[in-house]
Design a protein that fits this description.
4pyrrol_Methylase_sf, alpha/beta, Precorrin methylase, Methyltransferase, Cobalt-precorrin-4 Transmethylase, Domain 2, 4pyrrol_Mease, transferase, about 20% strand, Cobalt-precorrin-4 Transmethylase, domain 1, methyltransferase
Amino acid sequence: MTGAISRIYYPKVFITGVGAGGRAFLTPVAEAAVRRCGIITAWAEVIKSLGFSLEGKLVLEQNCTNYQEVLVKAAKLARTKGEDIALLVKDDPLVYSAGLDSYKEVFKDFRIEFIPAVSSLQLLAAATRVSLEDCLLVVYKPDAAGNIDQSDLVVKRERMLKAYKAGYNLIILSDLEQTLAQTAGFLIERGIPADTKVIVGEQMGTESQKITGKSISEVSRGTSHWMSCMAVKQPEY
């Protein structure tokens, strides 16, 4: 006796990088993921800045207080409806390691696919004309409460010093709790000359993008937009 073969549908979640800002650096692969998926999850400002046509799709907006809760809701709906999810992430989804563990936990029964994008770090490297091969990229990691992980901060700071002294350029992403001014102040305290030339990129890839050459001393005394990054180049580079 033969019977029908039962096919179990395992939904997919596309962790989709949408670039540093606006549609200019949005890839066709990312747009295809949005068209394919029935459930779209993203921060409200990301959806607004990209101007996607989302008619007929279930859109779940995230903010700083409901981020994890929305992921759980999206996963539950995808299982129930048999839909795939496009989780839109500003910048490149693998710039930050913080989300990786939560993705694995929330979407443990999903097929997970990462779609890369142009990050603000890459845009600053291009503007500064340095090769990523010759750079240390520094991104600060949050703790479980969303604050700067202090043990990680110590490790990253020491790594910065060792890399710069070994001849590497630094490209550093700012954070609300670890501003470029704080990072610059630390580097000066640990022996980086105060007149070292740096390039600061604010709101990279957006219409408000601003790229400025300064001394690291000026950065330590000033303020930058919270979405900023800084390139500290070797003198001979």
